[in-house]
Amino acid sequence: MERPAWAPHGIDLSVPSVSRMYDYYLGGSHNFEADRVAARKVLDAFPGLPKIVQANRAFMRRAVRHAISEGVTRFLDIGSGIPTFGNVHEVAREASPEARVVYVDNDPVAVAHSTAVVRDIEGVEIVAADFRDPAALLATEPVQHLLAPNRPVAVLLVALLHFMDDEDKPYERVAEFRDALPRGSMLVLSHASTDGGPATTEQGEEVSEVYRRGGSTFVMRSFEEIARFFEGYELVEPGLVALPDWRPEGPVDEEDPIVYSGFVGVGRTA
Ligand SMILES: C[S@@+](CC[C@H](N)C(=O)[O-])C[C@H]1O[C@@H](n2cnc3c(N)ncnc32)[C@H](O)[C@@H]1O
């Protein structure tokens, strides 16, 4: 198989990856045949997914602007993915030239492509690290740099935690990040759910099965289970809500049920 210049050596192009499948749903070009085959199976089970991922990105941008309007200008984006349109650093820098961003991903293609995009941008860095090892992630130089002034940080876990099963101890990891950050820090989170939305449990299982076959996990959690990630945080208004309902900046299409397949929220420590 032909290896494009942006694909690092040492990755197995025949195994689908979470970040490259997501890139495909978003209409990106950083994916391989194995990613597209797996992604199309997910789309067969859940054809509305491209709308959901767009709504997810739009929520992320609104949350970044909100953080900046509250004086939080430092962002730790864990599971940041392959850069696409309207990335965190672009939205943050537009709202505040002081904004600093550290992107973190454990996928080599996401890291390589992010490195190429942010190489010459001061105050924006990318780290190859794993959410499941907060101590190692927090000890990396760019993250230490981000935390050095002891100012609040917004941690972004956007469309990441549904790739962690309970054995990955996601609740403990989220708490470790919370406890390592200065008071007044924020948690920005989005998570897939079959509660309340049009996605059925059967669709959820079909999607999980495709990811499982590719060696990844996909877990839909209930509203209550997602709310538990905010332990120790105060949820800012309007609380934990469906993707389009979090501080919409324009009219919300209530007629379109597809984008109601996940919950999002922003919390802040007192
Ligand atoms: C669905 S994408 C979300 C990208 C971006 N946050 C967004 O919402 O547009 C999930 C990303 O999390 C990354 N990821 C999965 N498990 C991870 C882990 N244990 N540590 C760090 N990143 C991880 C994947 O490589 C992928 O890039």
User: Could you report the average pLDDT, rounded to the nearest whole number?
Assistant: 93
The helix-and-strand class reads alpha/beta
Small molecules held by this entry: S-adenosylmethionine
Count of β-strands: 8
Radius of gyration: 18 Å
Unreliable stretches (pLDDT < 50, length at least 5) are: none
What is the N-to-C order of secondary-structure elements (H for helix, E for strand)?
HHHEHEHEHHEHEHHEEE
Q: Roughly how much helix do the residues carry, as a percent range? A: 25-40%
Number of helices: 10
Shape: globular
Amino-to-carboxy terminus distance: 52 Å
Q: What about the largest sheet?
A: 8 strands, mixed
Percent of sequence in beta strands: 5-15%
Task: Spell out the key features of this protein.
about 270 residues, alpha/beta, 8-stranded mixed sheet, binds S-adenosylmethionine
Describe this structure in words.
The protein has helices at 18-25, 33-45, 49-69, 88-95, 108-118, 134-139, 141-147, 170-180, 201-213, 223-227; strands at 74-78, 100-105, 124-128, 153-158, 186-192, 234-235, 241-242, 262-268. The radius of gyration is 18 Å and the shape is globular. Strands 1, 2, 3, 4, 5, 6, 7 and 8 form an eight-stranded mixed β-sheet that branches. Helix 8 (170-180) links the parallel strand 4 and strand 5 (186-192). The protein is an alpha/beta fold. The protein binds S-adenosylmethionine. The site of S-adenosylmethionine (SAM) has 22 residues, from helix 1, helix 3 and strand 2.
